[in-house]
UniProtKB/TrEMBL annotation:
Family the UniProt entry places it in: Belongs to the CBF-beta family.
Main location, first listed in the record: nucleus
Region called Disordered, residue ranges: 212-231
Gene3D superfamilies with a match to the protein in the record: Core binding factor, beta subunit
Subcellular location: Nucleus
Compositionally biased region (Polar residues): 222-231
Keyword Nucleus: yes
Protein name, per record: Protein big brother,Protein brother,Core-binding factor subunit beta
Matching InterPro entries: CBF_beta, CBF_bsu_sf
Keywords for the protein's UniProt record, in alphabetical order: Nucleus
One cellular-component annotation, GO: core-binding factor complex
One of the GO biological process terms: regulation of transcription by RNA polymerase II
Length: 231
């Protein structure tokens, strides 16, 4: 599965009808007045995004076994289209790389990397290795008969970079993971910004008396018949 890259078609831009999101896949539905009234009268809601990264990414990268094993140069291989003829797999590998995606497995650990990058980087770098070594993408010109791949991704909350090469004939090669310092810094800033925003929202709700009192909730739960829950 490839990461979400944004909506290319404006017909599926999210629209809103009575508080329900419509992404263009279905016609907008008529929402009864009672549904909209219940939405308006409901208590305030705060939606949390699941953090993409953890605190102290560098420390986790250096201590976790999964990173220790996969940060060493190891044999890798192309894993897609195993049921197809070999020459077809070779062609599909190169086509996928030019389109900005591929799937590589570490033969020793069994970990599979679904790698993606901006396909425009391939044409931007061209034969200039100084550029291709600094940006995510594929380079077919660095060594004849090999595809050098560099791609950033997040594994277990840690920003890492895959770097390696695949032989175009054998569809095997050598690769490893390394800590992506730049991406980790950016994601840390996003994480801190989200935490600050949530703290601000909670303080405002608490200040306006809109957060439930934990003691009152406990009393209400005890007063409810067994088997019923408070919503």
């Amino acid at each position: 599965m490839l990461p979400y890259q944004g909506y290319d078609d404006h017909s599926i831009t999210p629209t809103y009808n009575g508080g329900i999101e419509n992404y263009g896949f279905y016609p907008q539905m008529h929402i009864p007045d009672c549904a909209s009234q219940s939405t308006e009268s409901s208590s305030p809601k705060i939606f949390f995004k699941i953090p993409k990264v953890v605190h102290n990414q560098r420390d986790k990268f250096e201590k976790d076994e999964i990173f220790k094993k996969n940060s060493r140069d190891s044999e890798i291989r192309y894993t897609l289209y195993r049921d197809r003829p070999y020459n077809e797999r070779q062609a599909k590998f190169q086509t996928g790389c030019r389109e900005g995606h591929t799937e590589i497995a570490n033969s020793s650990t069994g970990l599979v990397f679904v790698l993606t990058w901006n396909p425009m980087n391939y044409s931007m770098a061209g034969y200039d290795h100084r550029i291709s070594d600094r940006i995510d993408g594929v380079n077919f010109h660095k060594e004849p008969g090999k595809a050098h791949i560099r791609a950033s991704l997040i594994i277990n909350g840690v920003c890492v970079r895959f770097r390696g090469w695949i032989d175009l004939d054998r569809l095997e090669g050598i690769g490893a993971l390394e800590f992506d310092e730049e991406m980790a810094r950016v994601e840390d800033e996003i994480l801190q910004r989200d935490i600050t925003l949530y703290d601000y929202k909670f303080k405002n709700l608490d200040k306006n008396g809109m957060l439930p009192n934990p003691h009152d909730l406990e009393i209400q739960e005890r007063s409810q018949p067994q088997g019923k829950k408070i919503h």
